[in-house]
Write a sequence for this structure.
């Protein structure tokens, strides 16, 4: 377990990217929940291809979660500290066998 | 409803169960060490782990509960799908990598990584146990309801079967076999749900106007006669005269063809006139072996009656009777322009004899089932009360925060080799789970219009939809649903056994155990927790499956998430803060639930108006409460330590 107090720049980048994407999604989710709670009638408005806002926004939230997840997966940087730790673990396991 | 066990169904079902257990024995040969038992040596490929996330997560609540809720009331059940998926965003962006970096076997490891405190291990171990057991009950109940129609066995047999099979899986192999079972189940569930949705769209929608009778329209005068359209009216007495101060709602007739019991009809208004329409209803009196259906004993012999399957459209757009194949969008737009028959129910109390529940048809515009607010639990968002809106916000918050704090999901981060693999497997998990949740809306609405539903058990909607399309599909879907339960339950039991052996015995009591002895203790704990789950599953048989899962999410989100998040993002967090936050979050959310109107009504059978908690979902109060507790305790003890440190140096 690597619990050093000074995270590598890569890890700091990943953490910040994660928090940013999290806030983006949180905003959209909060919007959805608030419309449901305080203006439920708006959800009946037909917005796209004959579908109402409830279905479009709901499906949108699911699809968007995946899109953000993929963006995160592609943009994340590899943590060198972790690579070292993994190699150490692998070699330790090799020794014990 | 009375179900006929089909030989093919039993065959496919047993094939699944033996296949799963066999695989588990085969994989279990290697898992002797504690690393193998708790974390599968961290050697599970990330793609497999990702699908296994889906296997862990898509429990009976997702598959049976959500589809059932959508089938009964429309869109509202889908709100759970959205909230359940949104929770994964918290898991991926905030929790995944630190969990992997800090921990080894259990959730308590991660919380305790900086402090090495017995108190933290104890508090986190107990909260893991509490959340897991809460989550276990609905899974076991769901298993029982599945076995009933499939094999024609009583409910408790199903519960015991799941318990025994799962204990075998967990005891033989731990995390390795559990993971592969999850992987198998996750992929099968998604593949066959897709098949089911494709077949559903191919079949399209049809109207049904013949399953239930309609009489009228009748004038007020005609309604008061002793015979209506040649049928003899049974004079109303007791509770049948008026219900809760309302006018007489139902009319009962002597059956025409000399059948037992009565024919019952609901009196409906005809819009824009004084006339009334009689729509056929169904009634259930009493419960258990002495249950009466429409006044006659439950059965298929002469002199007996059974509940008829429900769920149909009464009108399609343009007066059509059948649409033919539909596309994924036209499926929704067609339902939106149709009229659906939903079913309401009223309880009739008579001075003598048991209560009667009458289920009656409610013709509903298709538009209304495609928007939120039709389910009684969600109807508040269209009402006046602010408390109801808070309740809704609270539920959506608990779903959002709950996922990332469920112990059986968290331990899955220890089965892959590093943070990058944890990240990738979460993304695969989100893709699989998200795709499945999109399908739930089709499955639920498909079931709503399938003409095959069981009035008294909405949990069976998805399998019954399959049955209305192809009987073999029913067998496959039920078998998958059953393995769904097996998979989730084994994950939960594994998480609990880890909490007992690793956190409580070794961490708190300080008992020193070798790796192998640790595994033995964990297996023993698995047997005990499994036993408890079996007993609770039998006791809580009447409860809705989706209901308790909501509790588990609230407790998990209140007890675990604040501590986890603050540990990661606030440097001043102390061990006292973490312990207090976990305990306060757990106790306050549990207490709130036990004192809420929902629990009063469905668990204690008390008047919900007497409940102490102002609304049912605790999250919106207890999650912030746990955060505040952590901050207050951390600051207090942090300052104290600083003072004593400065005194010592002076």
């Amino acid at each position: 377990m690597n619990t050093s107090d000074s995270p590598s720049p890569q890890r700091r980048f990943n953490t910040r990217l994660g928090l940013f994407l999290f806030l983006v999604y949180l905003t959209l989710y909060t919007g959805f929940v608030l419309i449901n709670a305080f203006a439920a009638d708006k959800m009946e408005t037909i917005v796209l291809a004959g579908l109402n806002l409830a279905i479009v926004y709901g499906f949108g939230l699911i699809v968007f979660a995946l899109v953000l997840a993929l963006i995160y997966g592609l943009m994340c940087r590899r943590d060198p500290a972790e690579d070292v730790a993994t190699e150490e673990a692998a070699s330790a396991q090799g020794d014990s066998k | 409803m009375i179900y006929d066990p089909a030989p093919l169904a039993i065959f496919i079902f047993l094939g699944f169960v033996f296949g799963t257990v066999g695989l588990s024995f085969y994989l279990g040969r290697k898992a002797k060490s504690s690393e193998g038992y708790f974390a599968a040596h961290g050697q599970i490929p990330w793609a497999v782990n990702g699908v296994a996330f889906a296997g862990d997560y898509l429990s009976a609540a997702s598959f049976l509960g959500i589809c059932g809720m959508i089938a009964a009331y429309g869109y509202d059940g889908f709100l759970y799908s959205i909230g359940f998926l949104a929770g994964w965003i918290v898991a991926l962006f905030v929790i995944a990598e630190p969990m992997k970096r800090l921990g080894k076997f259990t959730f308590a490891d991660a919380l305790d990584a900086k402090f090495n405190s017995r108190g933290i291990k104890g508090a986190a171990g107990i909260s893991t146990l509490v959340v897991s057991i809460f989550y276990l009950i609905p899974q076991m109940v769901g298993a029982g309801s599945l076995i009933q129609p499939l094999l024609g066995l009583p409910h408790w047999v199903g519960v015991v079967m799941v318990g025994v099979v799962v204990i075998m899986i967990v005891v033989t192999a731990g995390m390795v076999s559990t993971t592969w079972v999850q992987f198998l189940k996750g992929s099968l569930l998604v593949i066959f749900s897709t098949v089911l949705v494709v077949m559903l769209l191919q079949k399209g929608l049809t109207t049904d106007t013949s399953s239930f009778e309609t009489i009228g329209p009748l004038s007020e005068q005609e309604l008061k006669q002793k015979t209506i359209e040649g049928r003899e009216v049974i004079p109303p007495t007791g509770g049948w005269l008026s219900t809760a101060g309302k006018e007489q709602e139902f009319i009962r007739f002597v059956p025409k063809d000399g059948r037992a019991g009565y024919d019952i009809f609901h009196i409906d208004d005809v819009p824009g006139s004084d006339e009334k329409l009689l729509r056929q209803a169904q009634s259930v009196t009493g419960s258990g072996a002495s249950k009466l259906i429409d006044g006659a004993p439950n059965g298929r012999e002469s002199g007996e009656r059974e509940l008829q399957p429900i769920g149909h459209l009464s009108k399609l757009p343009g007066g059509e009777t059948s649409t033919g194949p539909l596309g994924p969008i036209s499926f929704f737009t067609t339902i939106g322009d149709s009229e659906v028959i939903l079913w309401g129910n009223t309880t009739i109390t008579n001075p003598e004899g048991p209560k009667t529940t009458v289920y009656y048809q409610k013709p509903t515009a298709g538009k209304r089932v495609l928007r939120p607010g039709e389910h009684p639990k969600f109807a508040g968002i269209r009402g006046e009360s602010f408390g109801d809106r808070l309740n809704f916000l609270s539920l959506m918050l608990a779903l959002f925060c709950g996922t990332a704090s469920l112990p059986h999901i968290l331990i899955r981060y220890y089965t892959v080799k590093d943070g990058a693999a944890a990240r990738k497997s979460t993304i695969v998990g989100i893709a699989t789970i998200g795709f499945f949740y999109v399908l739930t809306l089709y499955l639920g609405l498909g079931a709503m219009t399938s003409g095959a539903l069981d009035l008294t058990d909405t949990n069976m909607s998805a399998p019954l939809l399959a049955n209305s399309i192809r009987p073999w599909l029913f067998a496959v879907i039920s078998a998958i649903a059953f393995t769904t339960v097996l998979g989730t339950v084994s994950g939960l039991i594994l998480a609990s056994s880890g909490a007992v052996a690793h956190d409580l015995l070794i961490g708190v009591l300080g008992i020193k155990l070798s790796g192998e002895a640790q595994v033995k203790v964990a297996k023993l704990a698995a047997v005990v927790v499994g036993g408890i789950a079996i007993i609770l599953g039998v006791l809580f048989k009447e409860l809705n499956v989706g209901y308790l899962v909501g509790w588990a999410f609230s407790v998990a989100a209140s007890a675990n998430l604040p501590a986890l998040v603050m540990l990661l993002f606030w440097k001043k967090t102390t061990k006292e803060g973490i312990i207090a936050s976990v305990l306060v979050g757990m106790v306050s959310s549990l207490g709130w639930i036990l004192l809420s109107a929902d629990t009063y009504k469905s668990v204690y059978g008390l008047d919900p108006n007497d409940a102490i908690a102002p609304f049912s979902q605790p999250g919106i109060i207890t999650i912030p409460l746990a955060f505040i507790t952590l901050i207050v305790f951390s600051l207090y003890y942090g300052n104290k330590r600083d003072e004593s440190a400065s005194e010592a140096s002076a």
